[in-house]
């Protein structure tokens, strides 16, 4: 009895189905799903810089809007337009990269030790030593030109030679002192955040290089998810024959398509078995491979010897670094004067002698740290940092590893889902226009 009723209902349902429209819906939602995920990736990464225009009063209005709307790129500054979510959150990405990943990879002291300070000292001496005679000559001509001109050349050469003899020991003291105080002199969080903020394209490169394969799969699966979700949509549409259904269901399909795409890449972080099938986020399955790529980018572009040198000298704690180097440099003149120091001090006067020491130390500060900025030497040292970061990144628990990529955009994912919903609704309206409202003459076929 019940079977006959079901069969009768199915026959009646089939008689009222527009089969051309029914079959077209899953393909249509599949294409829309692909477009949603493709354009969603565009929204994530492009444009690198904000594109749009300013609207008077928008900044003030945005301040009273819900927090989610305030996060739309550009709105808090009164701009109406768009900037890729990832580059717009470059500073945030830098902060999370430190908190969730880099801070767990090692302290500043560990990074510095990995750079082999003894080799740095040898390199500084090798680069600085040829400039030392001109530095001594420059300081002496400025501080005591008459005395320096009157000294015989052999005596001048002797002074310079004695200063050069002190150089390796002084530089070793400097690199050791940097190592002892590196935790106070170097702040990785500030260094990384400032670098990411100034170079938003680097953050995009991190995502692209590390997860490009998964991002491509996300786009491809947009069609699969859209097609599968289109099947129940087609059944519902041809059951109730209400024109408002397709746009409304399109919102649901668009939202779920993006949601499934993100889930496919990142969830679950830990491997699970469901009915004997391995289930794990695609990104997590390549943790070792992704760790190598991530480590290379960080070592080559973010935490480099060049950037460490720049931060030590020009960062917020640069004055302390310069003072420390100058303090280590001042004894060079005393040691160069040797047993004649007392006589020289008397001949020049205590203030003039102290001025020479201070001037020499100040001039030497910049030249001592300059070898940090040697690109070739920095590249060699970055290989050591890369090995450390790669090893530690591979050891991260999967949940921490996935946060390295996702945490920076997680709060903004709603924009992608909302974008999917809008496109899904638009897709539903387009389908109605093509297949119900006759936007194309003679189509669909009667």
Automatic annotation (TrEMBL):
Q: Which UniProt keywords apply?
A: Membrane, Transmembrane, Transmembrane helix
Asked if the record carries the keyword Membrane, the reply is yes
Q: Source organism's superkingdom? A: Bacteria
Q: Does the keyword Ligase apply?
A: no
| TM segment ranges | 20-45, 215-236, 248-266, 414-440
PANTHER family attached to this UniProt entry = UPF0754 MEMBRANE PROTEIN YHEB
Official protein name in the record? DUF445 family protein
Q: Which organism is it from?
A: Nocardioides caeni
């Amino acid at each position: 009895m019940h079977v006959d009723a079901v069969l009768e209902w199915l026959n009646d349902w089939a008689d009222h189905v527009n089969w051309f429209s029914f079959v077209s819906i899953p393909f249509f939602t599949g294409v829309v799903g692909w477009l949603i995920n493709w354009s969603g990736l565009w929204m994530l990464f492009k444009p690198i810089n904000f594109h749009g225009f300013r609207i008077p009063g928008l900044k003030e209005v945005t301040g009273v809007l819900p927090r989610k709307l305030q996060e739309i790129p550009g709105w808090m500054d009164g701009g109406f337009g768009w900037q890729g979510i990832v580059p717009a959150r470059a500073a945030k990405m830098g902060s999370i990269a430190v908190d969730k990943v880099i801070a767990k990879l090692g302290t500043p002291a560990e990074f510095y030790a990995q750079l082999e300070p003894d080799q740095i000292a040898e390199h500084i001496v090798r680069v600085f030593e040829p400039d030392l005679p001109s530095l001594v000559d420059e300081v002496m001509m400025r501080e005591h030109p008459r005395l320096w001109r009157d000294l015989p050349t052999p005596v001048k050469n002797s002074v310079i030679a004695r200063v050069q003899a002190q150089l390796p020991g002084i530089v070793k003291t400097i690199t050791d002192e940097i190592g002892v105080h590196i935790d106070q002199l170097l702040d990785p969080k500030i260094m990384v955040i400032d670098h990411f903020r100034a170079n938003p394209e680097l953050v995009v490169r991190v995502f692209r290089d590390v997860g490009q394969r998964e991002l491509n799969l996300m786009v491809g699966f947009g069609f699969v998810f859209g097609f599968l979700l289109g099947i129940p949509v087609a059944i519902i549409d041809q059951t109730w024959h209400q024109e408002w259904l397709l746009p409304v269901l399109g919102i649901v399909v668009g939202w779920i398509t993006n949601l499934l795409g993100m889930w496919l890449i990142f969830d679950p972080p830990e491997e699970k078995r469901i009915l004997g099938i391995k289930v794990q986020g695609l990104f997590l399955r390549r943790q070792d491979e992704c760790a190598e790529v991530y480590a290379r980018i960080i070592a080559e572009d973010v935490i480099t010897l060049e950037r460490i040198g720049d931060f030590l000298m020009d960062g917020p704690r640069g004055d302390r670094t310069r003072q420390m180097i100058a303090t280590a440099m001042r004894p060079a003149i005393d040691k160069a004067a040797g047993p004649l120091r007392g006589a020289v001090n008397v001949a020049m006067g205590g203030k003039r002698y102290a001025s020479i020491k201070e001037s020499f130390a100040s001039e030497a500060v910049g030249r001592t740290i300059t070898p940090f900025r040697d690109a070739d030497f920095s590249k060699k040292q970055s290989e050591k940092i890369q090995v450390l970061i790669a090893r530690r990144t591979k050891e991260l628990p999967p949940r921490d590893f996935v946060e390295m990529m996702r945490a920076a955009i997680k709060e903004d994912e709603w924009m992608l889902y909302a974008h999917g919903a809008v496109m899904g609704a638009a897709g539903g309206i387009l389908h109605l226009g093509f297949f119900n409202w006759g936007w194309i003459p003679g189509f669909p076929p009667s």
